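Retro notes
What went well: the complex prediction finally ran end to end.
Inputs used:
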Amino acid sequence: MLDERHCAAPVASVRDLKVYFQSKRGIVHAVDGVSFDIRDGETLGLVGETGCGKSVTGRSFLRLLPVPPCILAGGSVTFHTHVVCKACAGVGCEACDGTGRQAGRDRSVDLLGISSEDMRRIRGDRIAMIFQDPGKALNPTLPIGAQIAEVFLQHRTEELIALAGLPPDTVGAIRRFASQSPRFGDGWLLSLPGPRRAQRLRVEESLAKMVADALAETQVPNPGKLMARYPHELSGGMRQRVMIAQALACNPDLLIADEPTTALDVTVEARILELIRNLQQRRKTSVLYISHDLSLVRRISDRVAVMYAGRIVEIGTTAEVFANPRHPYTRGLMAAVPGADTPRGKLAAIRGTVPELVDPPTACRFAGRCPHETGTCRSNDPVLEAITPSQSVACFIDHPAQSGERPTYERVTK
Amino acid sequence: MTDVQQSRIAAGAMTADTAFRVRMRRLFGVLQGMASNPATVIGLVIIALMLVMAIFAPWLLEPNSPDPYQMPRDWGAVRKPPGTPGHPLGTTNEGGDVLYGVIWGSRTSLQLSLMVVGSTMIVGTIVGSIAGLVGGWVDEVLMRLVDVFLSIPELIFALAIAAVLGPSFGNIILALAVVLWVKYARIMRAQVLQIKQHDFVDAARVIGDSKLNIYLRDILPNAVTPVTVQATLDMGNVVLIGATLSFIGLSEAGIAEWGVLVSEGQAGIASGRWWASTFPGLMIFLWALAFNLVGDGLRDALDPRTEGR
């Protein structure tokens, strides 16, 4: 299973991504040269502490960063779009060897370079996102059914028209209605008794059906009734299910999950994780799972990338990274997770604090907090390099060739 | 309820024009909140009575001149006290029937406040939205313009404009509109800037919504609350300022307007003819009071912190 994944083509490749922020004190290097791939169908966990740039990395996939103060300083995010198999609409069938995608119809786009109109077409359709706090990510003035319907109106107009039993060459007010681009007066045209009104009702019914189906996927009770509810009438777990239904409504290739369970309690968290996992496996969606919770990432991801101060310091398969963490920061993080057998009153914190990211010097970003630090760490910048075919680390301990001097783990025992 | 019916309801809830029905449910909740506040109810009752009076003015008191907004003059009955047959509230120095002025003045006031509040609300909302959404130098330019307007006291500014334009009721409307739109622009900009930061706006962008859709469906409905409250309060204030301008003589003389009537009657107060100023003055007071009560009640009812109380 794992070997197969290693050969799998990436669904998205981030190369040397640099995202800076303009601030009063100078330019903050929030993400500074990050490179990684998200492979087809995998879950990549992106872990790190608050402010290390993991959310910014996730958001740059959808260009969700406010351009001033944010500066896209360099690099690329290449996304390989797939064309969904027509026979099974992405669920996986014999015609497409269970991948849900039409072979040979892929093309690549640089998400940072395309026009905003092209970006809009990808958003919600090919790449979707789940937010941290579902209470804040739903519009309080619209029933949730209307909010899920929006995805279909934006990206599934053709299907909607077909499902309503209308000819594919339908034009005019009905098409504008089904693509949510009404013109002045359309409301009257579609409300007054007549054939247009009947057509509108059919489109509305199909829309309701699509929304109910999307909601049913997330195992909510009575989706038909739920649609007319407002977000404030639902519990946190329910809201997150609605968000997931909305995100997965169009069968995206890539799902960015930005700490989707942080705002939920532990029992709901487990169920939401289970849900994301099930849907992901069934639909072969790749997931970028952003979290600061190591034990959670260990449970759900195939590979893990550890970020520190705007850099990826270690990346590899979950099994390898957790069995054999190489970077001192990764080791520190894992030691800091209290287990059931941790003695009372003792928590192994990493000493020091995250450095200021304003004009960082050429040095290992972890220098100063690292227990194994040597002089070379202060003057040279380690590069992420492979130590096994499936694990890479940016530290001089494993890459002595990158510098003259070699720090070792032994120093820590003193 | 059958499943089919339920999905019909849900489908109905999803489109803009039928979401209206679902929204009515919310409106009902707000009305309930307002009904639980006695002061607001008093305000609503006064407004309702004023509206009835304005709507049924031609039936209450039939005009006998070609222009019903001109005070009819009964030169045979000048300076009559209240209770005079045919003139229940008395007459002015020039034989104008005070009751006629009070009743038809409610129409003038309604006209004034609706036109001023309507136009300033629309212009202010548009300007404020543009400033908040576009930001940058556009925001800077628009808001400095607003600052210039706000730096001059409302009444003085309106007075200056009306005086330059010449005495007429239409010019009072224009002057007030020019002065008052800035408040709405300010409020709207602040709202848009705040709502823009919300996750649900990002979430709408994430699903590929167009900018116009995000504005119309996510930002605007969440931003209108304070604008609505301000508009309600202004319905009263506008009449107050308008009456002030009329009183100074910036309106046509002789029209059925409360401010004009107060001004017409003020010369007689010293000689004991209190009625010509008092009744229209009372109307101005009630009108401004009622809208202020309702505006305050609306603000409380719409405030999410007081919701469910």
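What we learned: Confidence is low (pLDDT under 50) at residues 1-7 of chain A.
What to try next: split runs per interface for comparison.
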